Amino acid sequence: MKAKKKMAIIASYFADETYGLLGPQMAATVIQENTPYDCIVIAVTREDDKTLLKRALADYFGVERPIIGFSTLSGREDLFSFAKECKTEGALTILAGPQADVDCLGENNWQNHPHRFQGLTENFSFSLHGPAEQAKYLLQHLDKNAWKDTPGLLYVSKNNRIIQNPKNTWKEKYLRKVKWSNIYRIGKAGLVSHKITTGQVLQQIGCPYAAQEKRVEIDYPVPIAGIDTQKVKLSLKGCSFCDVAVDKGFYGQLDTETVVEQIRCLPDTSEGMKIPFELINENPIPGLPRLLQQTRESGIRLSQINLIVRADWFLRGEKNLRRALVLARSLGVRILLSSVGFESFDDRILRNLNKGLNVETNLQAIHLMRQLKEEFPQVWGYARSEGAIHGFIHPTPWDTEESSANIQRVLSLHTLPPDILPEHSIPLIIHHASGLGDWIRKVERREGVQFKRYGSIIGWWHEEKR
Question: Whole-model pTM?
Answer without folding.
Answer: 0.95
